[in-house]
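Figure-free illustration: sequence to structure, shown twice.
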Amino acid sequence: MSVAAVTYDFLSPGRAAAKGGATARVHTALREAIVQLDLKPGEFLDKQAIATRLGVSRFPVGEAMNRLATEGLVDIIPQSGSRVALIKISDARENMFLRRALEVETARTVASTAAPGLVEQLLSNLRYQEAAIDTGDMNGFHGFDLAFHAALQGQLGFERVRMATETARLSLDRVRRMLNTRRRMELTLNEHQAIVAAIELRDGDQAARAMNDHLEAVLAELESFARERPELFADLNTTGGTTK
């Protein structure tokens, strides 16, 4: 399939990677562009144009695309080339299930064991979230959102739980950014505030409910978005729950 001439100006050549060399650098640049939606679901990729933009040969670009294919972010189509993978709503559900299992119990445990200073750290984070909403800084809000959840994981202190949660979260980054509207940011702030209020009271059950409500609300919004933009998703006709 022919691909329209593109320059990929949004790709950052970056610095040479300490490990993995050019392939690692290309992988990082492409993964970031896919997650941030500079490269859209279903968009075909021009290997030569990417190589030119990043100052490498075609080989590391091909290797990077193979890695992204194993991560479910790129589809390699024989005789046609490579394209950004459509989103699988089934994968999003599974990863959100993992997040709920891990983060609801994290909130429950942290609420009853919170060290001095955690509540103030979370309240400070909420103030930054509010400021990001006021200025329309969607990327900034996303960063503070991640930091909020990371603070709770850090308080828990279980490294394997943190890594498992991070893996599930990374798989959701692309769809979360699609939902990053002002309305969703305001709702997220309110949901985070409910979690902190429960932690202030040292009420583990209330904190767990607030975290579950937060994650359920995000998934429900994703389901609604998928019905509105079915062209971005790969499995709406084969996975239950999105055609109600």
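We now fold a second protein in the same way, so the two outputs can be compared directly.
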Amino acid sequence: MPENLRQELCEALAQARGVLQDLDRLGLGALPLPALADNPPVCPLSVRGLDRGGTAPCRSETLDEVRADLGDCQRCPLARGRRHIVFGAGAPRARLVLVGEGPGREEDERGEPFVGEAGRLLDRMLFAIGLERSEVYLCNVVKCRPPGNRDPEPGEIAACRPFLERQLAAIAPEMILALGRVASQSLLASGTPISRLRGQWRDYQGIPLLPTYHPAYLLRNPAAKRESWEDLKQVRQRLRGGG
């Protein structure tokens, strides 16, 4: 330790010792702490542990609270054609979150994500790296099915984005697997093609994010499964602590 830093540290300790001795002479054996609120406010997305003023404790939002706020959403035109809002499903404190594009026909009918043929392929992909659906969290960029399974439009994505961000903040996963072009480009605010994004770790608000192909794309293009398997092996390695 440099001598000047050592000297400053000694002076600070001496001052602290003097303050404690003064308090002891005044009969103050302990300093009172403010009582914690029974129901502290939810932390802003950009803050962890303290509110914006830094003076009062706050807490993480729960998925149930995010879903309750979403309500019977009418924030974009997709609401007019949907049967069910497909909010998300899985472990509320999952280490891995998988984000897709939007619900398809079967998802819209059942109100659950990834339950069609692409969902069954996704289950097999998870199994290949030692995971089950119940151990991860599945959600989509938009919560309502676009007509004819078309790509979500920018306004639709923007209407749903605050809820996706709040979902991810509530779960606080160790990593995110973005499935397909729409999810990858939306989360990364990038126009780069998925063929160039996939396989390379990126950052989403401090969380490692790996883009890869969507299972529906793999059903149409089986040759791409090899590349997806390489991506999945990267996820498996990180989950096992391999960096």
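Summary for the second example: Residues 48-53 have pLDDT under 50 and may be disordered.
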